[in-house]
Amino acid sequence: MPPTDTILDLECQQLSKSFAGQAAVDNISLSIPSGSFFSILGPSGCGKTTLLRMLAGFVEPDSGDVRIKGHSMLGVPPNKRPLNMVFQHLALFPMMSVADNIAYGLKRRGTSRSEIARRVADVLERVGLPDVGQRKPDQLSGGQKQRIAIARCLVLEPAVLLLDEPLGALDLKLREQMKLELKQLQQTFGTTFVYITHDQSEALVMSDQVAVMNQGRFEHVASPQTLYYQPATAFVAGFVGDSNRLSGRVEAPGRVALASGRIIHATAAGATPADRGAPVSLFVRPEGISPLLPGQPCQMDNCLDARVSTLLFDGANSRIGALLDEGTELTVRLPQTPEFAQLRPGDRLQLGWMGNQAQYFAAPAL
């Protein structure tokens, strides 16, 4: 929770919503300080869109409260809330010029023509498109349209901008570019962004804080670095980033026995039980495992013999599937060094990692 003297642009207090007796949002609370980039990350069906619609005012909660700048929004319709929303389908008016698209909301408010002209010119300058005001939307690139849709919202000076998977319709290369541009825009305007996505890369790259949502609840709210390196639950460890997941039982604190009897040195996460024989799920990331060619010494806590089963070449993101002698397969990030360039399926190697690069959690009850 932020300090009590921190200005909060958006708060949720014990927010819940059910449909046909099924909880879509289950007792969610959050506090977002002014000027933050806050993402809500989760798989399809986890409740993030329902939560967004309650923030926007399209859905009334069954219980709890939504507060913007300290004021309750219960019963306040969407058009009266001090926020705006950017959807995946940008819905720019095709017959209007870019300037008229941006000015639309100001005209509906009755803003004077001179003030509209000043604010439209200012926002176009700030989104880096000062010379496109007289063009039509279909004369813009996909990335330019995205910036105009955001400018149309930010010209109204909302306290909060909600973004509902706005990059989902873009091609991969443009999505990568827009992740950086969105973060820069948020910093330029200083407006609080609340970003909804199922794409972990978008959330990790852009956000100050991320809430990982699962089955209507927040599993962990933290910085991207904390979510990645110190996940609070097994769900977060498996959902954020890529991980190899192994099942085993506690042999002793910091030691996990796999079904094969192999002992793995790892770090216990949170309140994971230390009782011998307790079932656990162990996670180790592909980039945390070092592949070692025959003859290379392994001086790590865990050293396992394996053979290459699959090779997935993707330049700097190349990976191998490595089958351990006891039958378990691990995914390993392939170093971009000459000695690994000739690696082929069937080749023998060792896999090594330190105990602090793997974490184990209490296994979920069946």
Task: Give a quick rundown of the structure.
The protein has 366 residues and is an alpha+beta fold.
- Annotation, overall tally of beta strands: 21
Q: What's the number of helices?
A: 8
Residue stretches low in confidence (pLDDT < 50, at least 5 long) are none
Largest sheet: 6 strands, mixed
Describe what this molecule looks like in 3D.
By secondary structure, the chain is α+β, with helices and mostly antiparallel strands. It folds into two domains: 227 residues, Rossmann fold; 121 residues, Beta Barrel (OB fold (Dihydrolipoamide Acetyltransferase, E2P)), CATH 2.40.50.100. 23% of the residues lie in helices and 34% in strands. The protein is built from eight helices and 21 strands. Strand 17 and strand 18 form a beta hairpin. Helix 4 packs parallel to helix 5. The radius of gyration is 25 Å and the shape is globular. The mean pLDDT is 90.
Q: What's the helix and strand layout?
A:
Blueprint: E1 8-19, E2 22-33, E3 37-41, H1 48-56, E4 63-68, E5 71-72, E6 83-86, H2 98-109, H3 113-126, H4 142-154, E7 160-164, H5 172-189, E8 192-197, H6 200-206, E9 209-214, E10 217-222, H7 224-229, H8 234-239, E11 244-252, E12 255-258, E13 263-265, E14 267-268, E15 279-284, E16 290-292, E17 302-312, E18 319-324, E19 329-333, E20 348-353, E21 358-362
Parallel strand pairs: 3-8, 3-9, 6-7, 7-8, 14-21
Antiparallel strand pairs: 1-2, 1-4, 4-5, 9-10, 11-12, 11-15, 12-13, 15-21, 16-20, 17-18, 17-20, 18-19
